[in-house]
Design brief:
Elements: H1 2-8, H2 11-32, H3 35-45, H4 50-67, H5 69-73, H6 79-97, H7 99-105, H8 108-128, H9 135-156, H10 158-161, H11 171-201, H12 204-228, H13 232-235, H14 240-271, H15 279-289, H16 291-304, H17 308-358
Length: 367
């Protein structure tokens, strides 16, 4: 979507959209409250009660989305944009609630088709209006498409998983799903804290440029997970030393992927987005993507040992450190300061895992 708006409208417009979508994403992520991972476990344990458990989760978490409405007032939006954003957040909350169902039932084709139709619809309408669309018009367009997408998915799954808020909210849900929530939320916040700071300190044009850059860097970074996903079941059966060797091999693969990816990204940003970043920014961006290739298998090793709390602690420390670096560096060094902040944080996270790996092997990484 960014390529269409930046190329045919303006970077400033995309920067404004990013600022709104960032907070909508954070709010709906909080409202999910571990919904996906918790319900996947519950569905596996009690498959015949999946519809009941899903509706109980939905009605319980609906309290969060209701309580979040006053937060959007703090964004100082006009009344029409405020209403659109609240409606957008509500329908995105419902749509994301279907994630565990899509995954458990292997109905990925539904999600892919709906996302593709939504993307084509938004792009077509933007081009239909000759790219002369305002910020409020674009938010309204996003809201309408998100609403139609969610309603369509709800109708397709209405037999067993029709949204209902009649079920009594269960406070026990929050207690049971909290470990899943905090693990996912700290990971999400660690990946968003830089964008929050960029959105606060930089111009909308720079926000747009940074958002495009960081999204592509995260795609390169995510390739580590794509490589590991087929072997996750086996990772839980492997011994510690084998997993640590796998970490090193994956890191070497990461160097190759990152090297190629950064060169292609530099060309892509200049030719397609007309964003020309200096080589030092791209080099630091490459350094940012590397550490996760090494410590991803180690995280699964910690999960195997039921040491999720250690992962959460490292995530929380990374969030705080990244935030402090961003506040200190972004005002002076702009986009380069933001990239440098998250790169330093990633390497410190890697060093932390290495410390627990080698300094205290009997306590943390005992076989």
């Amino acid at each position: 979507m960014s390529i269409v708006i930046i190329r045919f409208c303006s970077k400033e417009l995309w920067g404004q959209v990013v600022g709104i979508m960032l907070w909508v994403g954070i709010i709906t992520h909080i409202a999910s409250f571990g919904n996906k991972d918790f319900l996947l476990r519950e569905f596996s344990l009690s498959p015949f009660q999946s519809a009941i458990k899903w509706k109980e989760s939905l009605s319980s978490r609906f309290l969060i989305i209701l309580c979040s409405i006053p937060f959007f007032l703090l964004l100082h939006l006009s009344l029409n944009i405020f209403l659109c954003v609240v409606i957008l957040a509500f329908f995105r909350f419902i749509y994301q609630s279907y994630d565990p169902i899509i995954i458990y039932k292997n109905w990925f084709h539904l999600s892919i088709i709906l996302e593709l139709i939504s993307f084509i619809s938004i792009v077509s309408l933007i081009l239909f209006f000759d790219c002369k669309i305002s910020f409020s018009g674009l938010i309204l367009l996003y809201t309408i498409i998100e609403s139609l997408k969610t309603i369509t998915l709800g109708l397709l799954l209405r037999n067993d998983f029709s949204p209902s808020f009649k079920s009594k909210p269960m406070l026990s849900y929050f207690r049971l799903s909290f470990p899943f929530f905090i693990l996912n939320f700290t990971g999400m916040l660690a990946s968003k804290i830089d964008l929050v700071c960029v959105n606060h300190f930089l111009s909308k044009s720079d926000v747009a440029s940074y958002q495009v850059l960081i999204n592509f860097l995260l795609i390169i970074q995510a390739s580590s997970n794509f490589i590991l996903i087929p072997f996750v079941k086996n990772l839980y059966r492997l011994k510690k030393q084998i997993i640590l060797k796998l970490s090193f091999k994956l890191f070497l693969i990461g160097i190759l992927i990152t090297s190629i990816g950064i060169v292609l990204l530099k060309f892509f940003l200049r030719q397609i987005y007309h964003i020309d970043l200096d080589l030092s920014t791209m080099f630091i961006g490459g350094l940012f993507t590397l550490p996760i290739f090494y410590y991803s298998p180690i995280i699964y090793l910690l999960f195997k040992m039921n040491r999720q709390n250690l992962v959460i602690g490292i995530n929380l420390s990374a969030i705080l450190f990244s935030f402090l670096l961003c506040v200190f560096l972004i005002p002076s060094y702009q986009i380069f300061g933001a990239i440098l902040s998250i790169a330093i944080t990633q390497w410190l996270v890697l060093l932390t895992y290495l410390y627990f790996q080698w300094a205290t092997p009997t306590k943390v990484f005992a076989s």
